[in-house]
Q: What sequence folds into this?
């Protein structure tokens, strides 16, 4: 394995001081002083309750916070084995995870969990549900399963979940959820990720918000046993999809596209999808409301038409291009719903595989279409409950599966 420098000197010394551990909980952070103390205390309590007598450590990999975030962790974990410090590498969540993977490898842990630092709803039971299936040998990789408001998780609902499900044949509902459990062996696999396109993994968008989809896809592509931990409602700092999520979308979807090209032999022959086991009792939970400005989403779709017209014309099939033209004329862009949406995504995925040097351009061209798709979803789900809107998400995911032959047909033209 190549030498990895994800840990600064202070973190390296702290890892050496801990020596060995069986379990690790990692918390990436950047300016989370208001919430991270609660997260760290809850993680430590979860370890104490669920795994008494097992040597465990909490690792906080910070991105250079100037608000006292690491100090809050040290205070919250007084007397608890901990590693607190700054990661080395590109600024981003993925670089923080790289430091956590490296700490896990050095410590020789059997199981790990990672949790976001802005959580307000985390409970001690989350730690058990993410880690225990790995220790029991029931799973190698555990994704979260949340009850989320119908306007939350729009990148997941519109593309990360349906595309992952259709490509790799597993119904992993929250592939970019933020909280994960995984084995020490998988941590080493993530660390030694190789290249993605023309870039080393840790010089790519995996070092930023691409990390979650990279982990989930890597686990699926390697044939890891995957499960889901039911964690109830996730209460964190939600974002309006039109106001905040474009950079995250580009990093997540760009990574997913590059991974699809890398793993084509893994997904090409897969048809349909299978259920993924759930750990923990599920229940009826109504999550906090997330507000979304659908009018802003429509304005952003229309505002991008001139800028992205040339890319749409280059990359989209005539059928997809016609759907986009109709969407631009509609008050609510329902032309991007149904089977039209997977065809648009597949067209741009194939264009990315044909011209990997232009992947970022194709993903940027997808952003305004994503805005339009979300606006249509908001309209369709206007009178629906969380459970009712979930049926719409499942219908969309099924459409991605049904249109996978179209993806294969278009992919087959890449050599021509």
A:
């Amino acid at each position: 394995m190549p030498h990895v420098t994800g840990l600064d000197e202070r973190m390296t010394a702290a890892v050496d001081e801990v020596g060995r551990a069986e379990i690790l909980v990692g918390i990436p952070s950047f300016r989370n002083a208001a919430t991270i103390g609660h997260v760290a205390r809850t993680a430590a309590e979860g370890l104490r309750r669920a795994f008494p007598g097992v040597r465990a450590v909490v690792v906080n990999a910070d991105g250079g916070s100037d608000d006292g975030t690491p100090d809050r962790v040290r205070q919250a974990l007084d007397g608890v084995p901990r590693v607190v410090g700054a990661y080395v590498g590109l600024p981003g969540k993925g670089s923080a995870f790289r430091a956590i993977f490296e700490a896990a490898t050095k410590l020789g842990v059997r199981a790990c969990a990672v949790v976001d630092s802005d959580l307000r709803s985390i409970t001690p039971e989350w730690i058990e549900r993410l880690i225990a299936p790995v220790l029991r040998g029931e799973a190698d990789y555990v994704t979260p399963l949340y009850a989320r408001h119908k306007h939350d998780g729009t990148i997941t609902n519109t593309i990360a979940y349906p595309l992952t499900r259709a490509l790799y044949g597993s119904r992993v509902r929250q592939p970019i959820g933020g909280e994960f459990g995984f084995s020490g062996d998988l941590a080493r696999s993530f660390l030694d990720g190789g290249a993605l396109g023309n870039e080393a993994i840790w010089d790519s968008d995996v070092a930023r918000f691409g990390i979650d989809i990279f982990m989930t896809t890597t686990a699926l592509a390697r044939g890891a046993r995957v499960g889901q931990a039911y964690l109830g409602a996730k209460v964190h700092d939600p974002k309006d999809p039109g106001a905040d999520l474009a950079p995250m979308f580009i990093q997540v979807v760009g990574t997913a596209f590059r991974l699809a090209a890398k793993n084509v032999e893994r997904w090409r022959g897969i048809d349909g999808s299978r259920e993924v086991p759930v750990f923990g009792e599920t229940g009826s939970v109504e999550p906090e409301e997330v507000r979304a400005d659908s009018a802003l989403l429509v304005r952003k779709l229309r505002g991008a038409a001139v800028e992205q017209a040339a890319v749409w014309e280059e990359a989209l099939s005539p059928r997809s291009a016609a759907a986009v033209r109709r969407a631009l004329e509609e008050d609510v862009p329902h032309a991007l719903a149904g089977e039209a949406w997977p065809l648009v995504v597949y067209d741009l995925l194939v264009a990315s595989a044909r011209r990997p040097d232009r992947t970022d351009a194709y993903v940027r061209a997808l952003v305004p279409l994503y805005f339009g798709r979300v606006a249509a979803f908001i309209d369709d789900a206007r009178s629906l409950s969380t459970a009712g809107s979930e049926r719409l998400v499942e219908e969309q995911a099924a459409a991605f599966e049904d249109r996978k032959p179209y993806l294969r047909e278009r992919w087959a033209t890449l050599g021509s």
Observations:
- The first helix runs from residue 9 to 18.
- The chain has two domains: 9-279, 294-411.
- Residues 108 and 402 are 43 Å apart (CA to CA).
- The two ends are 37 Å apart (CA to CA).
